[in-house]
Amino acid sequence: MRNTQLPTPLPVQQFARCIDDTARPAGYIGDWPEAGRVYPVRVLPHVHTGQKHVHVLGFYAERPYGAFAAHRFEEVATLWMN
Length: 82
Fold this sequence. Notes:
It is a single chain. It contains no helices and seven strands. The protein has one domain. The strands form two sheets. A five-stranded antiparallel beta sheet has the order 6-4-3-1-7, with no helix packed on it. The relative contact order is 0.32. By secondary structure, the chain is mainly β. It has strands at 12-18, 29-30, 38-45, 52-56, 61-63, 68-69, 73-80.
């Protein structure tokens, strides 16, 4: 039997709908999601806390760090790319 390892990161494209666009931080410089819109995203754990953070692909963010809390989005699709 052969052990096959999947590549890291997995070859998937995730899509999520923004459900909470309130409470934009003061001094935030960059794109901000709009409630109800679906965005291509990548969900990654925070390096120190391990909590999930959502990175919206194609968004520009200068400061603070360009990731959003997971409670602001709901996953709608995962597309396997092969």
